[in-house]
Specification:
The complex is a heterodimer of chains A (374) and B (69). Chain A is mainly beta and 374 residues long. Chain A contains one helix and 16 strands. The chains are: A mainly beta (374), B mainly alpha (69).
Chain lengths: 374, 69
């Protein structure tokens, strides 16, 4: 799934009034004032996951982002991503590729654009996104309204989104099956002090249509999925040590009985000569979907009832450890490199026991980015 | 329940914040203090997690779906 536009990000608009600040304002701080300068971001990412004794899925992702101020009142941003996916799905995830040894090759091309109109303390954005794969197409649209308070210390954000997806698996199990998704979100961001801010957002998602994984034998899921997500974030800057601390907590619940908690902490340390070092950690835990069945496959399967052996719907916990280095380049460019290590284990679940019989899954992620504000 | 949680959080925000003058917002305007300092990066990372975990979303709407989950 595509990542989504940031919410509640316009509370810094007042800072635009400060001489010299506009050029350094982050993109996410410009919801109620048109950005002052164009920006270009280029990114290359390499993802490889593996299980004990075997490498599995590899994804190579170049991507591009542009932000264009069109006038004092209008701006446009757009991005393009190409995922090149190869390898075999993890054991027990995908009986077709994992058990039979048949490889997976797919290319996903995704693009999106968003046009924003600024009306003083109000900004209205409309956007669209498309994604194309051999077996999955998605067309989405959204509208987002951000309202700044008179003192610019708080921002209220409302968002509505919809997507129409079509699933057409290469194995021909089904043809052109639809999935419809409606989303709504309310967000609130508050400046707490001159060096801290907090944000909370609640999101509701209603999905209906085809949710089965057509590559997993017997996989039979409900044709409806309702999801609720609460995301809280808190950022604080420590002047003495020049560290920006970014924290977040996400609670997730859905109608398939999955409950999940995600905690993330990143500490960006400003170094001399405009370098920056950012260690980060993420912890994630989820309960199993009500229709997930432990191995051995296909124990627990009853014809006509929901069933899945997809271990992404099992109970487990996961950690991510990452380190990122940012560096200035000549000509106003900035580079960053990031390495992350991810691992999920059933024994790492909290608030309950993990699902039995699952091999640990690990992933290495490398990212390289280049960015310039013109 | 969710509305109650939101109300509590909003009340906490209201209680612990004091008005910060525009000229005091230089630190908050740093890219490192943005809620999402690098949307392209977070988009890739959320996409990677979406392919391996059951939970997703929370930071926006209307991004569309994909066949990775």
């Amino acid at each position: 799934m595509n990542a989504k536009p940031p919410i509640g990000s316009g509370l810094f608009a007042a800072a635009l009034a400060l001489p010299g600040l506009a050029a350094t304002l982050p993109r996410a701080a410009q919801a109620e004032a048109a950005p002052a300068a164009p920006e270009l971001d280029l990114r290359y990412a390499h993802y490889q996951d593996f299980q004990p004794g075997a490498e599995r899925m590899r994804v190579v992702t170049p991507s591009l982002f542009v932000l264009l101020p069109l006038s004092d009142a209008w701006s446009l941003k757009a991005s393009y991503t190409r995922d090149s996916l190869s390898g075999a799905s993890p054991l027990l995830y995908n009986a077709l590729s994992g058990a039979s040894g048949v490889g997976v090759h797919d290319i996903r091309r995704a693009g999106d654009a968003e046009l924003t109109r600024y009306f003083g303390r109000v900004a209205v954005a409309v956007g669209a996104a498309v994604s194309r794969e051999d077996d999955y197409d998605s067309n989405a649209a959204h509208v987002r309204v951000a309202l700044d308070s008179a003192d610019h210390d708080r921002t209220l954000t409302f968002g509505l989104g919809a997507s129409e997806d079509t699933i057409d698996p290469v194995n021909g199990l089904v043809n052109d099956r639809p999935r419809h998704v409606l989303e709504g979100q309310v967000g609130f961001t508050q400046v707490l002090t001159r060096d801290s801010l907090a944000s909370v957002a609640a999101t509701w998602v209603h999905g209906s249509g085809y949710f089965n994984d057509p590559y997993k034998p017997l996989d039979t899921r409900p044709d409806q999925r309702d999801q609720g997500v609460l995301l809280a974030r808190y950022n604080r800057f420590f002047e003495q040590t020049q560290i920006a601390l970014r924290t977040s907590y996400r609670f997730y619940a859905d109608s398939w009985d999955v409950r999940a908690h995600t905690l993330e902490v990143a500490a960006e340390k400003a170094l001399p000569h405009d370098f920056a070092l950012t260690p980060s950690v993420r912890y994630y835990t989820q309960s199993a979907a009500s229709f997930y069945r432990d191995p051995p496959f296909p124990e627990g399967f009853v014809a006509g009832h929901p069933y899945s052996a997809d271990t992404r719907l099992a109970a487990f916990g996961a950690f991510t450890l990452a380190l990122e280095l940012g560096a200035p380049l000549p000509g106003g460019w900035r580079a960053d490199g990031k390495f992350a290590f991810y691992q999920q284990r059933s024994g790492w679940r909290v608030l309950g026991s993990g699902s039995p019989g699952i091999e640990p899954l690990s992933a290495r992620i490398f990212e390289l980015g280049l960015r310039k504000t013109f | 329940m969710r509305l109650a949680t939101l109300a509590i959080v909003a009340a906490l925000f209201a209680g612990c914040s004091a008005h910060v003058q525009p000229w005091e917002k230089g630190v908050l305007a740093k890219r490192s203090m943005a809620l999402d300092p690098d949307p392209l990066k977070s988009r890739f990372e959320q996409h990677a997690y979406f392919g391996k975990e059951a939970a997703s979303g929370g930071d926006g709407v209307g991004g569309g779906g994909c066949g990775c989950n």
